[in-house]
Each structure stands twice: as C-alpha cells, then as structure tokens.
Amino acid sequence: MIDPAQLTDPAVRAFVSAVNAGDRGAFEALLAPGATMSDDGSDRNLTEWADREIFSSGGHMAVASESDGGRGLIVDYRNDTWGEMRTAWRFDVTTDGRISRFETGQA
What we know:
Helix content is 27%, strand content 44%. By secondary structure, it is of the alpha+beta class.
C-alpha cells in the first residue's frame, strides 16, 4: 500500500487524507464550486454521497496504486456499510488545485 503522504498529486493526497481522517471540513475545502462525482458510472449528489459513503460510515482509503500523474488510484476502500472492496478512482483537478470531479467504482 502507498502511504497517503507519498501520493503524487497534492489535491488527491489531501482528498485521501481528509477521507481517512473523517475530516468533512478539509474534504469540502478541496472541492471546486459545483464539483461533481459519479459512482459506478452514475452521477450522484456529491454532498449526500459523501455523507453516506464516507462520513457517516467510517470510510477509509488504502491506496494500492496510482497512475496518470497521481490522478488515478486503485484503492481498497472500506466503510461500515459495505465492508471492503477494490475500487478505482479518477480525479479532475483545477489549475488552482481543487477537485472539480471525481469518479469511483468497483475495480
């Protein structure tokens, strides 16, 4: 597994750290205005999804690999609802270093 502090892209590194710390404020600060996301190919309400899949269910990302300059991850993701599963994550980052979109789904 890759230590989150060693992830290449600063925004993605901060995203993983915020998820693992359960830090909703840090998570929200990383998002560009109007940020969007999808889960298994379907667009979701980002705020509702993050609350359900991360913050109210103890979400945690163990990064197995990164690609695309650190904006693509393979992660062993776990939470109290679904247990653990291998997931793929893809991030779009703005020029000012905020996440404008992320996509996740089973890998």
